[in-house]
């Protein structure tokens, strides 16, 4: 198993918002509020178009050989450019299989726009067989290939009306889910300087995604029931070893309580 589970957290790109809507002179908080309001008036939802998102956290679970690791890229002071560079550099160096929840619909398109903004090179990610024939029929870009598995997309049978939220599927499987935080709280937390809370929340999202992915791998025959149990215990051991991290301790407690 050589997979990288990833998730991003975003806030409105206030610099872009000022240019798009002539909002010069307003504070970041007021620009964000205006962007949400304008979007709601135009579209009936406050969810901004992909190009208007700025990435503030990228969290990962890496499972490779004997390694299981959960972390957020960079540090709390890293710039967006550094986060995006680190993400694509990992793909460039190791070519892991990517795993996400709605990564095809949200995370990767946002990463594309932000990489474009910052001039981040990512030839391995964009490879489709011209330089490496192994990527011709299995690359990161095709929805129906396996080098990137959007677990939400696959489980829904690629049907929009069948898509489920990460929190609902986590609840279905007895997993901790969102632990009282959610994506709609990220902008306010960012304005309050709570970047560590955002990073921790993002890490619990990738843990939920990874555990759902393990069940999916068992369902499609890539893991035996015994191997699935071993992988689950490996995750619990990792959380116990990192119990000094409050979100790991909370995640493990919620998980074992629900079980």
The count of helical stretches stands at 10
Question: Any idea how many domains?
Answer: 1
Give the rounded overall mean pLDDT. Answer: 96
Fraction of residues in β-strands: 5-15%
Topology as a string of helices (H) and strands (E): EHHEEHEHEHHHHHH
Query: How are the strands of the largest sheet arranged?
Result: 3-2-1-4-5
- Rg, Å, rounded: 19 Å
CATH topology: Nucleotidyltransferase, domain 5
In this structure, how is the largest beta sheet organized? 5 strands, mixed
| CATH superfamily annotation | Ribonuclease H-like superfamily/Ribonuclease H
Question: Which structural class do the helices and strands define?
Answer: alpha/beta
By DSSP, the count of extended strands is: 5
CATH architecture group name: 2-Layer Sandwich
What does this protein structure show overall?
- This protein has 259 residues and is α/β, with parallel strands linked by helices.
- It has one domain: Nucleotidyltransferase, domain 5, CATH 3.30.420.
- 49% of the residues lie in helices and 14% in strands.
- It contains ten helices and five strands; from the N terminus they run βααββαβαβαααααα.
- It has a five-stranded mixed beta sheet, sandwiched between helices.
- β4, α4 and β5 form a beta-alpha-beta unit.
- 35% of the residues are buried.
Please summarize what this structure is:
This protein is of the alpha/beta class. It contains 10 helices and 5 strands.
Which key features would you list for this structure?
single chain; 259 residues; alpha/beta; 10 helices; 49% helix
């Amino acid at each position: 198993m050589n997979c990288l589970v990833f998730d991003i957290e975003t806030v409105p790109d206030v610099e872009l918002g000022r240019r798009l809507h002539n909002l010069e002179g307003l504070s970041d908080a007021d620009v964000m509020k205006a962007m949400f309001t304008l979007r709601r008036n135009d579209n009936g939802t406050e969810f901004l178009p992909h190009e208007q998102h700025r990435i503030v956290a990228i969290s990962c679970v890496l499972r490779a050989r004997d390694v299981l690791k959960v972390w957020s890229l960079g540090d709390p002071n890293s710039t967006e450019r550094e986060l995006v560079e680190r993400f694509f550099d990992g793909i460039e160096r190791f070519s892991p299989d990517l795993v996400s929840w709605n990564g095809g619909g949200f995370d990767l398109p946002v990463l594309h726009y932000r990489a474009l903004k910052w001039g981040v090179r990512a030839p391995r990610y964009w490879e489709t067989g011209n330089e490496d024939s192994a990527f011709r029929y299995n690359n990161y870009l095709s929805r129906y290939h396996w080098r990137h598995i959007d677990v939400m997309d696959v489980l829904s049978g690629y049907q929009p009306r069948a898509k489920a939220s990460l929190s609902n599927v986590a609840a279905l499987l007895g997993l901790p889910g969102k632990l009282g935080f959610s994506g709609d709280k990220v902008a306010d937390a960012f304005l309050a300087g709570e970047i560590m809370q955002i990073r921790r929340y993002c890490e619990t999202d990738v843990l939920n995604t990874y555990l759902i992915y393990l069940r999916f791998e068992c369902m499609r025959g890539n893991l035996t029931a015994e191997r699935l149990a071993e992988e689950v215990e490996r995750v619990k051991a990792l959380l116990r070893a990192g119990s000094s991290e409050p979100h790991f301790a909370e995640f493990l407690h919620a998980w074992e309580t629900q079980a």
